[in-house]
Specification:
The complex is a heterodimer.
Chain A (H helix, E strand, L loop, with lengths): L5 E6 L1 H13 L3 E8 L2 E6 L10 E6 L2 E6 L17 H4 L3 E10 L2 E6 L7 E6 L1 H15 L6 H8 L1 E6 L10 H4 L11 E8 L2 E8 L2 H8 L8 H17 L6 H10 L4 H9 L5 H5 L6 E7 L5 E8 L9 E2 L3 E2 L4 H20 L9 H4 L7 H13 L1
Parallel strand pairs in A: 2-8, 8-9, 9-10
Antiparallel strand pairs in A: 1-11, 2-3, 4-5, 6-7, 6-13, 10-11, 12-13, 14-15
Chain B lengths: L13 E6 L5 H7 L2 H10 L1 E4 L12 E7 L2 E3 H13 E7 L1 H5 L11 H8 L8 E6 L9 E3 L6 H12 L11 H7 L5 H5 L15 H4 L16 H12 L3 H8 L7 H7 L6
Parallel strand pairs in B: 1-2, 1-3, 3-5, 5-7
Antiparallel strand pairs in B: 4-6
Classes of the chains: A alpha+beta, B alpha/beta.
């Protein structure tokens, strides 16, 4: 349902509100950026008034600061937060089938998947890249994951190009942003400065075009699209973090042994936060459950992480990655190097979440640079 | 570790709940399993459960749930007898698994404490230390928590009855926070949180109410307490006595928490 882009419209905030209303009227459950209990999250959006108006984020390794400015009218001023769209597409815990004992055997029933038609509002370009990475993982091979695939097919994507960069963004290095090039139904750039407030929209699919037509928005002027483009370029220029994506795979393949792994392991908590917030991490474990009397059983898939010992536990012995250094190496090497061989793409999209939400601020870009430096020594 | 339930003698397995030095909160968690308790009572023969009934049957028992730590002279013998009478012994809660909050005495002079607290200290026969069951006999399974999580308690009984491994992991509390989409309060508010070094199981309750994790479920697998404490100090401005207190709560005597607490604050 995602295709090439064409033509621009300019929506006023009221017309943007009409778009949200049109989505809901068309039966979409709309999810988007919100502030709940003082935290930036993705949640249900009933109208554009429920978005995170006036908020902005500041991110550093291990720190996230959300602030609100009375001066700002921007609905999408926050670059990103802990939540990613994985929240909606890849369930943390999912029952796959149930079994019932009967005289002389048992019967198995697959758990049905009936997702609602949903619209993701304000998907950042890096997060679109992440969704496409997970598409390749879950639907690209010989066996598609029914649960992911069904949810994905029911999701309409409305991209929000970035006009700000957080301190931990490096999408420019990973080629995933700050402008969304494909993989969306609708995409917009929000312009909110000097008293002006509008959204420059483009539609990429029939569904997107149809929705846009319901807002009664005129074509964007050349000045408006130029302004939007300039803001996106300013976000690119503001990005301070870099990762040498071109050489990282070869670098990591050469450096299974590097003193940096041990140094990082001294800091790494092996708490799994990086993998949980990463929009592309997809690992899971299977859990078999029984009823107390043993008459019924079920199998559930539960999100797991390469940082847990159970994840690499093998028969008869224990974990093959007992040291935190081996677990961190596994994660980073998979994300940035072996992922290419496995799925034909990098597993990293440069969203910076693993840096921000690491409780001790381990920075994957700094680690990559340090490994290169240690190798050069 | 997986009990062989198929070899049970005819009849229902015998379940005993035993108590050492404890507040009874963990066995109350079993009593609190309102939906499952009746079914459990149908599937096992409850031989001993002091908080529920005066009814008592002698061992041997198929499954014994022990709460409490070894704090008093007679408990040294008691735990050996419980082990001898139990085919499968599970410690339930921070006291039985790690020595409990009463193990704070292990860092001080217990006799001095007794003289402050009791009018007639001569009646108190406390040992100098509070120790977990594992310091005396080998348990078959250890359930963490102050108190234990009742779903995990039912899961242990369920796994025993069905001859399988309990679905309980030693992962971090952070993974529970992330699973329920709670935003990390250490990162977003600068609140020191024990979550990254603490064993999951509670369902990450405190961070969901904007409080740092208190570490009620003890150390997670391979906890890097030194790195967390270092971050608290450097980035969050935590004082040494705060860090010591954080590691000295309900699981003060758990080896990893104990070692970290000894690096901070007053000796």
């Amino acid at each position: 349902m995602n295709g090439e882009s064409s033509g621009y419209s300019a929506l006023t905030p009221a017309q943007f509100g009409a778009l949200v209303a049109a989505l809901r009227q068309a039966g979409y459950a709309v999810a988007g950026p919100r502030v709940a209990d003082g935290e930036f999250v993705f949640g249900d959006v009933s109208s554009s008034a429920g978005l995170a108006a006036g908020y902005a984020d500041e991110q550093k390794p291990g720190r996230y600061l959300l602030s609100k400015s009375a001066k700002s009218a921007a609905l999408f001023g926050v670059v990103n937060g802990q939540h990613s769209w994985k929240k909606y597409l890849f369930s943390q815990q999912e029952t796959l089938w149930r079994a019932r004992g009967s005289s002389g055997g048992f019967s198995v029933e697959q758990e049905p998947c009936r997702p609602a038609k949903s619209a993701f509002l304000g998907v950042r370009p890096c997060d679109i890249a992440a969704i496409r990475v997970q598409d390749a993982v879950f639907t690209g091979g010989a066996c598609a994951d029914t649960y992911y695939k069904t949810r994905r097919e029911n999701a309409l994507i409305i991209a929000a190009n970035c006009t700000r960069a957080s301190g931990n963004c490096f999408c420019d290095s990973m080629g995933s942003g700050p402008r969304a090039r494909a993989g969306f139904d609708l995409a917009f750039t929000e312009v909110a400065e000097n008293g002006a407030h509008y959204f420059v929209f483009e539609a990429a699919t029939a569904a997107g075009k149809q929705l846009l037509s319901k807002c009664g928005a005129p074509a964007a002027s050349a000045a408006q699209t130029r302004k939007a483009d300039a803001l996106i370029e300013s976000a690119r220029a503001a990005m301070t973090k870099k990762l040498d994506a071109k050489n990282i795979k070869a670098l990591l393949y050469r450096n299974y042994e590097n003193p940096r792994w041990e140094q990082t392991a001294k800091r790494c908590l092996a708490c799994a936060n990086c993998t949980m917030v990463c929009p592309t991490c997809f690992c899971s474990t299977m859990e078999d459950q029984t009823s107390l009397d043993g008459a019924q059983a079920s199998r559930a898939r539960r999100a797991d992480s390469c940082f847990t010992l159970d994840f690499s536990w093998i028969h008869g012995g224990g974990s093959v990655r007992p040291a935190a250094s081996s677990r961190y190496r596994q994660w980073m090497t998979h994300k940035l190097a072996t992922w290419h061989d496995q799925f034909g793409t990098s597993g990293c999209v440069g969203c910076g979440r693993c840096i921000t939400w690491c409780p001790v601020g381990i920075d994957i870009t700094e680690e990559a640079a340090a490994i290169a430096e240690a190798e050069a020594d | 570790m997986v009990p062989e339930t198929r070899n049970l003698k005819k009849g229902k397995p015998k379940l005993a709940v035993c108590k050492l030095a404890s507040c009874d909160g963990c066995q109350l968690s079993l009593l609190d399993c309102e939906d499952e308790l009746l079914q459990i009572a149908e599937l096992v023969q409850i031989a001993s459960f002091p908080e529920a009934t005066r009814h008592f049957e002698k061992g041997p028992y198929d499954l014994t749930l022990v709460e409490g730590s070894v704090c008093r002279e007679h408990e040294l013998e008691m735990i050996k007898e419980i082990r001898a009478q139990s085919r499968f012994l599970v410690t339930i809660g921070a006291c039985a698994t790690a020595g409990g909050i009463q193990s704070l005495r292990n860092f001080a002079d217990a006799k001095e404490y007794v003289s402050f607290v009791y009018a007639k200290p001569q009646y108190i026969s406390a040992l100098a230390t509070s120790t977990p069951v594992s310091a005396h006999v080998a348990p078959d399974y250890e359930l963490w928590g102050c108190p234990v999580n009742k779903e995990q308690l039912v899961e242990v009984v369920n796994a025993f009855l069905n001859g399988r491994k309990p679905n309980i992991t030693a992962r971090s509390v952070c993974m529970e926070c992330k699973a329920k989409n709670t935003v990390c309060i250490q990162v977003s508010r600068g609140t020191p949180c024990m979550g990254p070094v603490t064993h999951s199981g509670c369902g990450a309750i405190c961070p969901a109410y904007a409080r740092g994790c208190y570490g009620c479920f003890g150390p997670k697998e391979t906890p890097n307490t030194a790195s967390l404490a270092d971050w608290w100090k450097r980035e969050l401005g935590a004082q040494e006595d705060f860090t010591q207190r954080s590691f000295r709560t309900y699981n003060a005597w758990a080896p990893e928490f104990r070692a970290e607490s000894e690096k901070h604050g007053k000796k």
